[in-house]
Amino acid sequence: MEYRVEQLARTCDVSVDTVRYYRTIGLIEPPRRSGRVALYDDSHADRINTIRALQRKGLPLALIRRALDGTLRRSDAELAEAVAAAQADDDEALTLEQVAERTGVPTALLRAIEKAGLELGHTVDGRERYSAGDVEVVRQGLRLIERGFPMNELLELGKRYDAAAREAVDHAIELFDAYVRTPINEAGLEDDEAAEQLAGAFAELLPAVTALVTHHFRRVLLAAAERHLEQAGPPAVNA
C-alpha cells in the first residue's frame, strides 16, 4: 500500500513534521516520487512504528539509529532505557511558551538565557521541549533575582558551574564505562543477563552518586559561606 505523507502520518499516529524530520535525518528512506507527489509504503510505516516503540522505551534518536542498523548491544539498549526511566519524573513535554506562561518570564528572555549558554530544554523529534524541572529552575532563578542578584552575574555563575559539572560527570561516565559497562559486556554473558546486570548497576549507582554529589556540594557551599563570614565580618569591638 502506498501513502501520501499526510496518510502515512495518520496511519502511524505522528505529525507530518515528524515524518519529514525522520526523513531529513535519514531514519527512514526517501519516498518514491510520482511526478511532484511523494509516495511512502508499508516499509516506511513499519519503520516509523519501530522508531516510536523504541522512543517510548526512552531511547534517543542517536541510539535508535544504531538499534535499527544492528550496531547497538542489547545491554546498552537496556542501559539507555534505565537512564530514561530515571528521568521519568521530569519528563513533562512543554513548549517554551508554556514555560513562559507558568513562570511569568517572557519567551524572549528565556531565549536570551539559552543563548547565554544555559540549556533549559532538550530536543524531541527535532523540536525543543521543556520539563517541569526546567520550570522549577526558572522559578528558583527568579527568587534569586528578587533577592537582588544581578541576572548577568547569575548567568555567569550558571555557566561556570555548568562547565565544571559537565567535566565531572564526563569523568564519572568514563569510570562507569571502564569499571562497570565494559567488564559486563566483555564477560561472555547471555544478552539478557548482561542487560539485567548493566541496568541493575546503573539503578544502584545513580542514587549513590547523586547523594554523594549533592551532599558534597551543600557541605562545601556552607563551609565557604562560614569562612567568608569569618573573614568579611566587621572587627570585634573591645570591651
List the helices and strands and how they pair.
Layout: E1 2-3, H1 5-12, H2 16-24, E2 32-34, E3 37-41, H3 42-56, H4 61-69, H5 74-86, H6 96-103, H7 107-115, E4 122-124, E5 127-129, H8 132-146, H9 151-185, H10 191-232
Antiparallel strand pairs: 1-3, 2-3, 4-5
Helix pairs in contact: 1-2, 5-10, 6-8, 9-10
What topology, given as strand order, has the largest sheet?
1-3-2
CATH class descriptor of the largest domain = Mainly Alpha
Low-confidence stretches: none
Proportion in β-strands:
5-15%
CATH topology descriptor of the largest domain: Multidrug-efflux Transporter Regulator, Chain: A, Domain 2
Mean pLDDT: 88
Structural class: mainly alpha
Give the domain tally: 2
Radius of gyration: 24 Å
Please work out how many helical segments DSSP would assign. Answer: 10
Helix content: 55-70%
Supply database-style keywords.
10 helices; 2 domains; 239 residues; 5 strands; mainly alpha; 7% strand; three-stranded antiparallel beta sheet; Multidrug-efflux Transporter Regulator, Chain: A, Domain 2
